[in-house]
Description:
The structure holds two protein chains of two kinds.
Chain A: H1 14-24, E1 80-87, E2 96-97, H2 102-108, E3 118-120, E4 126-128, H3 131-138, E5 142-149, H4 157-166, H5 177-186, E6 195-198, E7 213-215, H6 225-230, H7 232-241, H8 248-270, H9 285-298, E8 305-311, H10 319-341, E9 348-353, E10 373-378, E11 385-387, E12 406-407, H11 408-420, H12 424-427
Parallel strand pairs in A: 1-8, 1-9, 5-11, 5-12, 6-7, 6-8
Antiparallel strand pairs in A: 2-4, 3-4, 5-10, 9-10
Helix pairs in contact in A: 9-10
Chain B: H1 10-20, H2 26-35, H3 37-44, H4 67-80, H5 84-97, H6 101-104, H7 107-120, H8 125-133, H9 136-141, H10 155-165, H11 174-183, E1 187-192, E2 195-204, E3 214-216, E4 219-221, H12 225-233, H13 236-250, H14 257-270, H15 273-282, H16 289-292, H17 299-309, H18 327-342, H19 365-384, H20 388-394, H21 398-408, H22 416-428, H23 433-444, H24 447-450
Antiparallel strand pairs in B: 1-2, 3-4
Helix pairs in contact in B: 1-2, 1-3, 4-7, 4-17, 5-7, 7-8, 8-12, 10-11, 13-14, 14-15, 19-23, 21-22, 21-23, 22-23
Amino acid sequence: MNLPKTTSQNPLSRRRFLQLAAVAGGATAAPFVVSRAMDGSTTAAAPPAEDGSSTDVGHPAVDAGEDDPPVPAPSGDGPVLVVIHLDGGNDGLNTVVPVSDSRYESLRGAGIAPVEALSPLDSDFALASMPYLAERWGSSELAIVHGVGVPDGSLSHFAAGDVWESGSLGASLTSGFLGRAVEHLYGVDADPLTGVCAGSFSRALQGDAWSPFTLPSGAALPWSAEFVERNPGVVAGLEHLATASLTGLGGEVIESHSVLRDVGERIDAARPDDDQPGAGRAERGVAQDLALVADAINAGLPTAVFHLRHGGFDTHANQLASHPGLLLGLDEAIAAFHGRLGTNRDRVVVMTWTEFGRRVAFNGSGTDHGTSSIGFVLGSSVAGGHYGEPPELGSLDRAGNLPVTTDFRDYIAGVCGGVLGVPADVIAEANDPVEVLV
Amino acid sequence: MAETNVDSTEENVAHLLRRAGWGGTPDEIAVGAAAGIDATIAGLLDVDAAPPAGDAFRDVGLEAYDPPDFIAWWYRLATTSPTPGIERLAWFWHGHFATGLTKVRFPSLLRDQLVTLRRHGLGRFDDLLELMSHDAAMNIWLDLHTSVVGRPNENFARELMELFSLGVDGGYSQTDVSEAARAFTGYGLRSAANAPRRPIGSELKPELHDYGHKTVLGASGDLTGRDVIEAIVSLPACHRHVVRRLWLRYAGTDPSSETLEYLVAEFARRLDVGDLLTALLTCEEFYSEGVRTGLVAQPVESFVRTLRNFEIEVPDLTGTTVQDAPPQQRQAARRLIGWSRLLGQMPGLPPNVAGWPHNEGWLATDKTAGRLMVGVELGAVVGGSDTALSDELRSLGPDELAETILRRFGRLSWSDATIRAAADAAATVGRGPESVASAFALIFSSPEVTLT
């Protein structure tokens, strides 16, 4: 290749260089941000203070080279948004059930939600298989947003999921709606822990140049004190590798090692002492991921937004056997999450999204892809109640789908903008943001 | 068949073997360079040389549903097969048709699907689509077995167009999907005579098929599933989609428009996947710098290469299951599956119907963490095994050790940083098992092994 090599004479720090290169070269590069000096001399970062306060701006572990300013990050005691993707397309009709509308039973037939699992909310609606959320509704902490969906949206999981995660109907954006909020607040130099994907990566948290940290489910992290002690050769090799100047995908591999080291050390330092593997934690799934999130919040990690997935909602078949369990699993996970958070619960707002709802007609075993669904927003700062127009069961489209009454952009821009203190138009092109906070 | 103008250097042959097979050992690379690129490709794509996949694990049916039986069988086949090119292509199709045990539930049915992909993966694409539309695992995965006249289920018809053949912008409409769904109604599961709840295949039940008039992509009449497939494969959007999918997984970045048009023309001639793959592997662009540095390995690919080239044995579970195997084999199978899980990818368990991510999706921090953790554990195996290879490695000093391990990974060119980091890792601990383990773990996590 004829490109000039980048050498140590480059006046820019490596981090700056990569960021500028990413901006100039388009967002496909999406490099990971190095947030500590990797000169091989710092094998142990100073641990954060017991109360987590030093995880604020200027934490020793995030002091990069001399030329670099401190890494911007949230304070660790402000509002936290926890976003849960109900992956597969949740059936809104069998989640918030329109019990007073006789057309529900006549259109759904054998596919109605099991009556014994319903918690009445008011004279018109009941919540299916979610007793804890029904209790929060009673305390006016649960907002139910009706008819949320993509106007004239695709019925493909991936096209619809893409539109939701990007927060835009156009195909030109590579960033996600949460990633843009982070960049607006803290810039492209933000600490990678500002936004955390718990369990698996989501594009919703990808910025234009900033990338979130993805926390592996359950597994022990490299760069914990134990890892370093057990693997001196590997550590020495990785410290050498960190000085490599590679471009393209190879450079991204090096960057992801650097980010891994930084966050691995900080998360290790933030873990509660009594936390034996598995103790007090669910084994898998959204409950396990929410427990990790609770520990991170309790430890004061500088994270403003978490994104998680709860999968299995693509209920084309056997819906009556699977869907109630999915809702109950989420409900129990949120109840345990609130318990684990203690008083920190008041700082946290949980919101859900799903790529689309399901067809109104039952296909004999389940429901096919549909249009609008339900959004939940939960927290003590939320003004509980119904938001948006419940879709009319009498006005289905030609394919037999519900109308979209709340544009998904109004939902994400209103809720996320409100919680994080970001102008709605940074998050999405919204006409009428849904404002749910007290 | 297309022939290449590219020189048969060891460097080029190593690249070919990494992308179109599992990656060569130093001996295999030397043999390939002596035979030449065209002969090496012919060997990689020789479906007649592929042995039968075997009966493998004992089919215990739904009562003991266990993905590990399938996963262990798959790794055994992938690592021991004398035709890595055929296994690599079946793996590509497994990602393309991305069928998962979470819903299929019967490991034997997914094994049958893999056997079909091995045998027919180099044949005509329309035949392959038709085979998949009758495949029992696919029928369960995309709900075809519940799709009957009057109550068609759109899941298969949609993914057939969106994922398998035309692409999301492939020019079909919701009406095409709904009408195609009617054409695929009536395929039910066929059960074993002595076990009515255990499906062993799929069959058309005429009384459940919709014989009415349908219109799909401009074709009208009492269309069958085959008719719909023929309408699809006549479209240029289908040819481009298949070429792009294959290029994406074998080459990485977008092809130049010249290469794309050339490959589309080669494929459109007979809809023959063998024609297309041969054209792809012989074209000059496949050996360009951009392609060489433009593809992140799927974790399973670098994992199989490691198991194979470092002679880490995968247990043979023929006639048994992971659960019922002798303790040593059971433990080895579980360890193998645990590594695959940590790397973020398990055969038979794609994350969703679109299959596994591409390139940057594998560079997220959790994947890097997984590679590092697995590298440390594999390193301990390579450093501590009772084999001639491990004996040899344990006897080497840091520089020679690093060089020997690097060559075993099937690549000739390495960055100075990786070479020196591997030697550093080896030198930090004294000569012996730990030195081998450290150098191995470092190299397994390096940019060159993460890419392919």
